[in-house]
Write a structure and sequence with these properties.
With 424 residues, this protein is α/β, with parallel strands linked by helices. The protein has 2 domains: 20-205 and 403-422, Rossmann fold; 219-400, Glycogen Phosphorylase B (Rossmann fold). It has helices at residues 2-21, 25-35, 58-74, 87-97, 111-121, 135-143, 157-164, 167-174, 185-193, 238-250, 268-277, 294-297, 310-313, 335-339, 356-361, 373-381, 384-400, 404-413, 418-422, and strands at residues 50-54, 79-84, 102-105, 125-129, 148-153, 179-182, 201-203, 228-234, 257-262, 282-284, 301-303, 319-322, 344-346, 365-367. The radius of gyration is 22 Å and the shape is globular.
Length: 424
Protein backbone atom coordinates (compact mmCIF):
# COMPACT_ATOMS: atom_id res chain seq x y z
CA UNK A 1 0.00 0.00 0.00
CA UNK A 2 2.95 2.33 0.68
CA UNK A 3 4.28 1.81 -2.86
CA UNK A 4 0.81 2.48 -4.31
CA UNK A 5 0.48 5.70 -2.28
CA UNK A 6 3.91 6.90 -3.42
CA UNK A 7 3.15 6.26 -7.09
CA UNK A 8 -0.29 7.89 -6.78
CA UNK A 9 1.22 10.89 -5.00
CA UNK A 10 3.94 11.34 -7.64
CA UNK A 11 1.37 11.19 -10.45
CA UNK A 12 -0.78 13.70 -8.60
CA UNK A 13 2.12 16.16 -8.26
CA UNK A 14 2.53 16.12 -12.03
CA UNK A 15 -1.16 16.35 -12.92
CA UNK A 16 -2.52 18.58 -10.15
CA UNK A 17 -1.65 21.99 -11.69
CA UNK A 18 -3.23 21.05 -15.02
CA UNK A 19 -6.32 19.57 -13.39
CA UNK A 20 -6.78 22.65 -11.26
CA UNK A 21 -6.24 25.19 -14.04
CA UNK A 22 -8.61 23.53 -16.50
CA UNK A 23 -11.50 24.35 -14.18
CA UNK A 24 -13.15 27.76 -14.06
CA UNK A 25 -11.62 30.08 -11.42
CA UNK A 26 -14.84 30.09 -9.39
CA UNK A 27 -14.68 26.29 -9.02
CA UNK A 28 -10.98 25.76 -8.34
CA UNK A 29 -10.97 26.51 -4.61
CA UNK A 30 -13.91 24.23 -3.86
CA UNK A 31 -12.55 21.44 -6.11
CA UNK A 32 -9.12 21.48 -4.47
CA UNK A 33 -10.47 21.65 -0.90
CA UNK A 34 -12.85 18.75 -1.41
CA UNK A 35 -10.27 16.65 -3.22
CA UNK A 36 -8.00 17.17 -0.20
CA UNK A 37 -10.85 15.90 1.98
CA UNK A 38 -11.62 19.34 3.42
CA UNK A 39 -15.35 19.11 2.80
CA UNK A 40 -17.78 21.28 4.70
CA UNK A 41 -18.68 20.00 8.15
CA UNK A 42 -22.21 21.30 7.71
CA UNK A 43 -23.67 18.22 6.05
CA UNK A 44 -26.63 17.89 8.41
CA UNK A 45 -27.68 17.16 11.93
CA UNK A 46 -25.01 16.17 14.40
CA UNK A 47 -25.22 12.50 15.29
CA UNK A 48 -27.53 11.48 12.42
CA UNK A 49 -26.83 8.42 10.26
CA UNK A 50 -25.23 9.25 6.96
CA UNK A 51 -24.62 7.32 3.72
CA UNK A 52 -21.68 8.24 1.53
CA UNK A 53 -22.31 7.16 -2.06
CA UNK A 54 -19.49 7.40 -4.60
CA UNK A 55 -20.34 7.61 -8.32
CA UNK A 56 -17.37 8.53 -10.49
CA UNK A 57 -19.10 10.26 -13.44
CA UNK A 58 -22.33 10.72 -15.40
CA UNK A 59 -23.07 7.04 -16.03
CA UNK A 60 -22.64 6.03 -12.41
CA UNK A 61 -24.58 9.08 -11.17
CA UNK A 62 -27.45 8.24 -13.52
CA UNK A 63 -27.48 4.67 -12.23
CA UNK A 64 -27.44 5.94 -8.64
CA UNK A 65 -30.51 8.16 -9.11
CA UNK A 66 -33.24 5.52 -8.57
CA UNK A 67 -31.34 3.97 -5.67
CA UNK A 68 -30.85 7.25 -3.81
CA UNK A 69 -34.47 8.23 -4.43
CA UNK A 70 -35.60 4.87 -3.03
CA UNK A 71 -33.39 5.25 0.05
CA UNK A 72 -34.77 8.71 0.80
CA UNK A 73 -38.35 7.53 0.31
CA UNK A 74 -37.95 4.63 2.72
CA UNK A 75 -35.58 6.38 5.15
CA UNK A 76 -36.37 10.12 4.89
CA UNK A 77 -34.23 11.02 7.91
CA UNK A 78 -31.12 9.33 6.54
CA UNK A 79 -28.64 11.84 5.16
CA UNK A 80 -26.78 11.15 1.91
CA UNK A 81 -23.48 12.52 0.63
CA UNK A 82 -22.77 11.83 -3.05
CA UNK A 83 -19.21 12.17 -4.35
CA UNK A 84 -18.01 12.23 -7.96
CA UNK A 85 -14.67 12.60 -9.75
CA UNK A 86 -15.71 14.52 -12.87
CA UNK A 87 -17.26 17.95 -13.35
CA UNK A 88 -19.94 16.48 -15.62
CA UNK A 89 -20.80 14.03 -12.87
CA UNK A 90 -21.13 16.97 -10.48
CA UNK A 91 -23.45 18.81 -12.88
CA UNK A 92 -25.75 15.84 -13.41
CA UNK A 93 -25.73 14.95 -9.71
CA UNK A 94 -26.66 18.50 -8.80
CA UNK A 95 -29.44 18.64 -11.38
CA UNK A 96 -30.98 15.27 -10.61
CA UNK A 97 -30.10 14.62 -6.97
CA UNK A 98 -29.49 18.05 -5.45
CA UNK A 99 -32.65 17.81 -3.34
CA UNK A 100 -31.80 14.29 -2.15
CA UNK A 101 -28.08 14.49 -1.41
CA UNK A 102 -25.14 16.78 -0.66
CA UNK A 103 -22.86 16.62 -3.72
CA UNK A 104 -19.07 16.81 -3.31
CA UNK A 105 -15.87 15.86 -5.12
CA UNK A 106 -14.31 12.62 -3.87
CA UNK A 107 -10.99 13.06 -2.03
CA UNK A 108 -7.76 11.99 -3.67
CA UNK A 109 -6.95 8.38 -2.83
CA UNK A 110 -4.26 9.36 -0.36
CA UNK A 111 -4.43 8.54 3.37
CA UNK A 112 -4.46 12.12 4.68
CA UNK A 113 -7.18 13.25 2.22
CA UNK A 114 -9.40 10.23 2.90
CA UNK A 115 -8.87 10.64 6.65
CA UNK A 116 -9.94 14.29 6.45
CA UNK A 117 -13.12 13.40 4.57
CA UNK A 118 -14.06 10.53 6.89
CA UNK A 119 -13.67 12.71 9.96
CA UNK A 120 -15.82 15.47 8.49
CA UNK A 121 -18.55 13.36 6.85
CA UNK A 122 -18.65 10.67 9.56
CA UNK A 123 -20.41 8.10 7.32
CA UNK A 124 -22.31 5.08 8.60
CA UNK A 125 -21.85 3.28 5.26
CA UNK A 126 -19.66 3.85 2.20
CA UNK A 127 -21.36 2.71 -1.02
CA UNK A 128 -19.37 2.43 -4.26
CA UNK A 129 -21.32 2.54 -7.52
CA UNK A 130 -20.27 0.01 -10.16
CA UNK A 131 -16.57 -0.85 -9.67
CA UNK A 132 -14.38 1.98 -8.43
CA UNK A 133 -11.59 0.23 -6.55
CA UNK A 134 -9.64 2.90 -4.63
CA UNK A 135 -7.29 0.98 -2.28
CA UNK A 136 -6.61 3.68 0.32
CA UNK A 137 -10.23 4.81 0.50
CA UNK A 138 -11.52 1.27 0.98
CA UNK A 139 -8.93 0.18 3.52
CA UNK A 140 -9.25 3.38 5.56
CA UNK A 141 -13.03 3.01 5.68
CA UNK A 142 -12.46 -0.45 7.12
CA UNK A 143 -10.05 0.93 9.74
CA UNK A 144 -12.70 3.52 10.69
CA UNK A 145 -15.26 0.68 11.10
CA UNK A 146 -17.32 1.98 8.18
CA UNK A 147 -18.77 -0.93 6.13
CA UNK A 148 -17.95 -0.70 2.42
CA UNK A 149 -20.50 -2.05 -0.08
CA UNK A 150 -20.11 -2.20 -3.84
CA UNK A 151 -23.45 -1.68 -5.64
CA UNK A 152 -24.50 -2.25 -9.24
CA UNK A 153 -21.12 -3.91 -9.71
CA UNK A 154 -19.64 -4.54 -13.11
CA UNK A 155 -16.18 -5.41 -14.42
CA UNK A 156 -15.60 -5.17 -18.16
CA UNK A 157 -13.46 -7.81 -19.80
CA UNK A 158 -10.73 -5.23 -20.40
CA UNK A 159 -10.70 -4.14 -16.76
CA UNK A 160 -10.80 -7.75 -15.59
CA UNK A 161 -7.73 -8.63 -17.64
CA UNK A 162 -5.91 -5.66 -16.14
CA UNK A 163 -6.98 -6.40 -12.56
CA UNK A 164 -5.89 -10.05 -12.87
CA UNK A 165 -2.28 -8.90 -13.03
CA UNK A 166 -2.75 -7.30 -9.61
CA UNK A 167 -4.61 -10.09 -7.79
CA UNK A 168 -1.85 -10.33 -5.16
CA UNK A 169 -2.51 -6.67 -4.29
CA UNK A 170 -6.27 -6.51 -4.81
CA UNK A 171 -7.08 -9.49 -2.59
CA UNK A 172 -6.31 -7.50 0.56
CA UNK A 173 -8.35 -4.53 -0.67
CA UNK A 174 -11.37 -6.65 -1.62
CA UNK A 175 -11.25 -8.31 1.80
CA UNK A 176 -12.20 -4.89 3.21
CA UNK A 177 -15.49 -4.84 1.24
CA UNK A 178 -18.44 -6.25 3.19
CA UNK A 179 -20.71 -6.98 0.21
CA UNK A 180 -20.53 -7.01 -3.58
CA UNK A 181 -23.93 -6.54 -5.31
CA UNK A 182 -23.17 -7.39 -8.95
CA UNK A 183 -25.28 -6.77 -12.06
CA UNK A 184 -25.13 -10.32 -13.41
CA UNK A 185 -23.45 -13.68 -12.94
CA UNK A 186 -20.64 -12.88 -15.42
CA UNK A 187 -19.54 -9.90 -13.34
CA UNK A 188 -20.03 -11.87 -10.13
CA UNK A 189 -17.70 -14.57 -11.43
CA UNK A 190 -15.06 -11.99 -12.30
CA UNK A 191 -15.06 -10.37 -8.86
CA UNK A 192 -14.78 -13.82 -7.25
CA UNK A 193 -11.84 -14.60 -9.52
CA UNK A 194 -10.14 -11.43 -8.26
CA UNK A 195 -10.41 -12.62 -4.67
CA UNK A 196 -13.83 -11.63 -3.33
CA UNK A 197 -15.26 -14.32 -1.07
CA UNK A 198 -18.30 -16.08 -2.55
CA UNK A 199 -20.28 -15.50 0.65
CA UNK A 200 -19.95 -11.73 0.06
CA UNK A 201 -21.02 -11.72 -3.61
CA UNK A 202 -24.66 -11.46 -4.66
CA UNK A 203 -26.31 -10.91 -8.06
CA UNK A 204 -28.96 -8.20 -7.63
CA UNK A 205 -29.33 -6.81 -11.18
CA UNK A 206 -28.66 -3.53 -12.97
CA UNK A 207 -29.90 -0.22 -11.51
CA UNK A 208 -30.12 1.30 -14.95
CA UNK A 209 -33.23 -0.77 -15.66
CA UNK A 210 -34.89 1.15 -12.81
CA UNK A 211 -33.91 4.60 -14.10
CA UNK A 212 -36.79 6.98 -14.75
CA UNK A 213 -36.48 10.37 -16.46
CA UNK A 214 -37.09 13.24 -14.05
CA UNK A 215 -39.70 14.82 -16.31
CA UNK A 216 -41.72 14.23 -19.46
CA UNK A 217 -40.29 15.38 -22.80
CA UNK A 218 -39.48 19.10 -22.41
CA UNK A 219 -41.93 21.68 -23.72
CA UNK A 220 -39.48 22.99 -26.29
CA UNK A 221 -39.57 19.67 -28.18
CA UNK A 222 -43.27 20.01 -29.02
CA UNK A 223 -42.80 22.17 -32.12
CA UNK A 224 -39.91 20.33 -33.75
CA UNK A 225 -40.01 19.29 -37.38
CA UNK A 226 -40.74 15.61 -37.81
CA UNK A 227 -39.41 12.99 -37.70
CA UNK A 228 -36.95 13.50 -34.82
CA UNK A 229 -33.72 11.57 -34.31
CA UNK A 230 -31.97 11.87 -30.94
CA UNK A 231 -28.28 10.96 -30.99
CA UNK A 232 -27.31 10.70 -27.33
CA UNK A 233 -23.91 10.96 -25.60
CA UNK A 234 -21.85 11.24 -28.78
CA UNK A 235 -18.05 11.32 -28.73
CA UNK A 236 -15.50 13.00 -30.98
CA UNK A 237 -15.70 11.48 -34.46
CA UNK A 238 -19.30 10.35 -34.06
CA UNK A 239 -20.98 13.66 -34.84
CA UNK A 240 -19.69 13.42 -38.40
CA UNK A 241 -21.27 9.95 -38.62
CA UNK A 242 -24.60 11.34 -37.38
CA UNK A 243 -24.43 14.37 -39.69
CA UNK A 244 -23.61 12.21 -42.72
CA UNK A 245 -26.68 10.09 -42.02
CA UNK A 246 -28.77 13.21 -41.42
CA UNK A 247 -27.69 14.64 -44.78
CA UNK A 248 -28.79 11.49 -46.58
CA UNK A 249 -32.10 11.24 -44.76
CA UNK A 250 -33.06 14.88 -45.34
CA UNK A 251 -33.62 14.08 -49.00
CA UNK A 252 -36.50 11.83 -48.03
CA UNK A 253 -37.53 13.67 -44.86
CA UNK A 254 -37.11 17.41 -45.51
CA UNK A 255 -38.50 18.36 -42.08
CA UNK A 256 -36.16 15.96 -40.25
CA UNK A 257 -34.77 17.21 -36.92
CA UNK A 258 -31.55 15.85 -35.48
CA UNK A 259 -30.89 16.42 -31.76
CA UNK A 260 -27.19 15.97 -31.06
CA UNK A 261 -26.20 15.50 -27.40
CA UNK A 262 -22.39 15.49 -27.05
CA UNK A 263 -21.18 13.48 -24.08
CA UNK A 264 -18.75 16.14 -22.84
CA UNK A 265 -19.81 19.79 -22.29
CA UNK A 266 -16.44 21.17 -23.40
CA UNK A 267 -17.25 19.94 -26.93
CA UNK A 268 -20.51 21.86 -27.42
CA UNK A 269 -18.83 24.67 -29.39
CA UNK A 270 -16.78 22.18 -31.41
CA UNK A 271 -19.93 20.30 -32.46
CA UNK A 272 -21.70 23.56 -33.37
CA UNK A 273 -18.78 24.38 -35.65
CA UNK A 274 -19.05 20.98 -37.37
CA UNK A 275 -22.69 21.67 -38.21
CA UNK A 276 -21.99 25.23 -39.34
CA UNK A 277 -19.28 24.05 -41.73
CA UNK A 278 -21.92 22.05 -43.58
CA UNK A 279 -24.05 25.14 -44.03
CA UNK A 280 -27.00 23.73 -42.11
CA UNK A 281 -29.30 25.55 -39.73
CA UNK A 282 -28.73 24.69 -36.11
CA UNK A 283 -29.61 25.99 -32.68
CA UNK A 284 -28.16 25.33 -29.25
CA UNK A 285 -30.63 24.24 -26.61
CA UNK A 286 -29.39 27.04 -24.36
CA UNK A 287 -30.47 29.50 -27.05
CA UNK A 288 -34.08 28.33 -27.08
CA UNK A 289 -36.59 30.44 -25.22
CA UNK A 290 -39.47 28.07 -24.57
CA UNK A 291 -40.79 25.91 -27.39
CA UNK A 292 -39.47 26.80 -30.89
CA UNK A 293 -41.99 27.31 -33.65
CA UNK A 294 -42.63 24.47 -36.05
CA UNK A 295 -41.01 26.41 -38.85
CA UNK A 296 -37.81 27.14 -36.91
CA UNK A 297 -37.51 23.51 -35.90
CA UNK A 298 -37.95 22.03 -39.37
CA UNK A 299 -34.91 20.61 -41.08
CA UNK A 300 -32.61 21.73 -38.28
CA UNK A 301 -29.96 20.35 -36.00
CA UNK A 302 -30.36 21.05 -32.29
CA UNK A 303 -27.29 20.76 -30.06
CA UNK A 304 -28.39 19.66 -26.61
CA UNK A 305 -26.11 21.69 -24.35
CA UNK A 306 -28.24 21.36 -21.20
CA UNK A 307 -26.85 18.88 -18.69
CA UNK A 308 -29.27 16.32 -17.26
CA UNK A 309 -31.96 16.76 -19.93
CA UNK A 310 -31.11 13.95 -22.36
CA UNK A 311 -33.11 11.26 -20.53
CA UNK A 312 -36.29 13.32 -20.94
CA UNK A 313 -35.51 14.48 -24.49
CA UNK A 314 -35.55 10.86 -25.67
CA UNK A 315 -39.30 11.06 -25.06
CA UNK A 316 -39.75 13.16 -28.23
CA UNK A 317 -37.70 10.86 -30.49
CA UNK A 318 -38.94 8.82 -33.43
CA UNK A 319 -35.63 6.93 -33.28
CA UNK A 320 -32.66 6.98 -30.91
CA UNK A 321 -28.99 6.51 -31.78
CA UNK A 322 -26.59 5.48 -29.01
CA UNK A 323 -23.33 7.41 -28.87
CA UNK A 324 -20.01 5.89 -27.92
CA UNK A 325 -20.83 2.86 -30.06
CA UNK A 326 -19.49 4.04 -33.43
CA UNK A 327 -15.97 4.36 -32.04
CA UNK A 328 -14.08 1.88 -29.87
CA UNK A 329 -15.40 3.33 -26.65
CA UNK A 330 -17.87 0.61 -25.69
CA UNK A 331 -21.15 2.48 -26.04
CA UNK A 332 -23.38 4.54 -23.78
CA UNK A 333 -26.57 3.67 -21.93
CA UNK A 334 -29.42 2.47 -24.24
CA UNK A 335 -31.98 2.18 -21.43
CA UNK A 336 -33.24 5.76 -21.40
CA UNK A 337 -34.80 5.50 -24.89
CA UNK A 338 -36.02 2.01 -23.99
CA UNK A 339 -37.98 3.51 -21.09
CA UNK A 340 -39.81 5.69 -23.63
CA UNK A 341 -40.52 2.68 -25.91
CA UNK A 342 -38.29 4.02 -28.68
CA UNK A 343 -36.59 2.05 -31.47
CA UNK A 344 -32.85 2.04 -30.86
CA UNK A 345 -29.90 2.00 -33.25
CA UNK A 346 -26.44 1.10 -31.91
CA UNK A 347 -23.04 1.08 -33.53
CA UNK A 348 -20.80 -2.00 -33.54
CA UNK A 349 -19.05 -1.18 -30.23
CA UNK A 350 -21.41 -1.78 -27.28
CA UNK A 351 -19.07 -3.83 -25.09
CA UNK A 352 -19.76 -1.72 -21.99
CA UNK A 353 -23.39 -2.84 -22.09
CA UNK A 354 -23.48 -6.60 -22.79
CA UNK A 355 -27.21 -6.71 -21.99
CA UNK A 356 -27.81 -4.97 -25.33
CA UNK A 357 -27.72 -8.45 -26.89
CA UNK A 358 -31.11 -9.02 -25.28
CA UNK A 359 -32.45 -5.97 -27.11
CA UNK A 360 -31.08 -7.26 -30.41
CA UNK A 361 -32.62 -10.69 -29.82
CA UNK A 362 -36.03 -9.15 -29.09
CA UNK A 363 -35.79 -6.74 -32.07
CA UNK A 364 -35.96 -3.72 -29.81
CA UNK A 365 -32.64 -2.46 -31.17
CA UNK A 366 -30.57 -2.91 -34.30
CA UNK A 367 -26.83 -2.77 -34.88
CA UNK A 368 -25.40 -0.67 -37.73
CA UNK A 369 -21.97 0.24 -39.03
CA UNK A 370 -21.20 3.94 -39.45
CA UNK A 371 -21.74 3.76 -43.20
CA UNK A 372 -25.07 1.98 -42.75
CA UNK A 373 -26.59 4.31 -40.16
CA UNK A 374 -28.74 6.22 -42.65
CA UNK A 375 -30.14 2.98 -44.06
CA UNK A 376 -30.95 1.61 -40.59
CA UNK A 377 -32.67 4.83 -39.54
CA UNK A 378 -34.46 5.16 -42.85
CA UNK A 379 -35.97 1.71 -42.47
CA UNK A 380 -37.38 2.68 -39.09
CA UNK A 381 -38.63 6.13 -40.09
CA UNK A 382 -40.31 4.82 -43.25
CA UNK A 383 -42.28 2.19 -41.35
CA UNK A 384 -44.39 3.37 -38.40
CA UNK A 385 -45.39 -0.24 -37.73
CA UNK A 386 -41.75 -1.34 -37.47
CA UNK A 387 -40.91 1.63 -35.25
CA UNK A 388 -43.83 0.87 -32.93
CA UNK A 389 -42.95 -2.83 -32.77
CA UNK A 390 -39.31 -2.08 -31.95
CA UNK A 391 -40.39 0.44 -29.31
CA UNK A 392 -42.67 -2.09 -27.61
CA UNK A 393 -39.88 -4.67 -27.64
CA UNK A 394 -37.32 -2.29 -26.13
CA UNK A 395 -39.72 -1.39 -23.30
CA UNK A 396 -40.54 -5.08 -22.76
CA UNK A 397 -36.85 -5.88 -22.18
CA UNK A 398 -36.57 -2.86 -19.90
CA UNK A 399 -39.53 -3.90 -17.74
CA UNK A 400 -38.45 -7.53 -17.57
CA UNK A 401 -35.12 -6.59 -15.99
CA UNK A 402 -36.40 -4.00 -13.51
CA UNK A 403 -36.28 -4.46 -9.74
CA UNK A 404 -32.53 -4.27 -9.03
CA UNK A 405 -32.90 -1.21 -6.79
CA UNK A 406 -35.36 -2.93 -4.46
CA UNK A 407 -33.25 -6.10 -4.27
CA UNK A 408 -30.11 -4.10 -3.53
CA UNK A 409 -31.79 -1.84 -0.99
CA UNK A 410 -32.86 -4.88 1.01
CA UNK A 411 -29.21 -5.95 1.16
CA UNK A 412 -28.01 -2.46 2.12
CA UNK A 413 -30.58 -2.22 4.92
CA UNK A 414 -28.89 -5.13 6.69
CA UNK A 415 -25.93 -2.79 7.29
CA UNK A 416 -27.83 0.31 8.36
CA UNK A 417 -27.56 1.35 12.01
CA UNK A 418 -30.70 0.53 13.97
CA UNK A 419 -31.42 4.26 14.37
CA UNK A 420 -31.56 4.65 10.59
CA UNK A 421 -33.71 1.57 10.09
CA UNK A 422 -36.27 2.94 12.47
CA UNK A 423 -36.29 6.46 11.08
CA UNK A 424 -38.87 5.99 8.38
Amino acid sequence: MIAYSLLYGLALLVLLPLECLKRPPALRRRWLKERLGLVSREHGRLGSSRLWVHAVSVGEVTAAVPFIQAVRKRHPHLEIVLSTVTDTGQAVAGARLGTYATVIYVPFDLPFAVRNAISRIDPSLFLIMETEIWPNTITMMRRASVPVLLLNGRISEKSFNGYRRLVFFLKGVLDCVSLFCMQDETYAGRIRALGAGSDRVKVTGNFKFDTRPSTAAPEWTAGLGRPVIVAGSTHRGEEDVMLNAYGELRREFPCLTLILAPRHPERFAEVAELVAKRGWAYVRRSGLDGAPSSQSGQGAVIILDAMGELASVYGCADAAVIGGSFIEHGGQNPLEPAYWSKPIVCGPHMGNFPFVEEFYAENGAVRAEAGGLAEALGGILCSPDLAASMGRASRRVYDRNAGAVERTLREVERFLPSTAEGAD
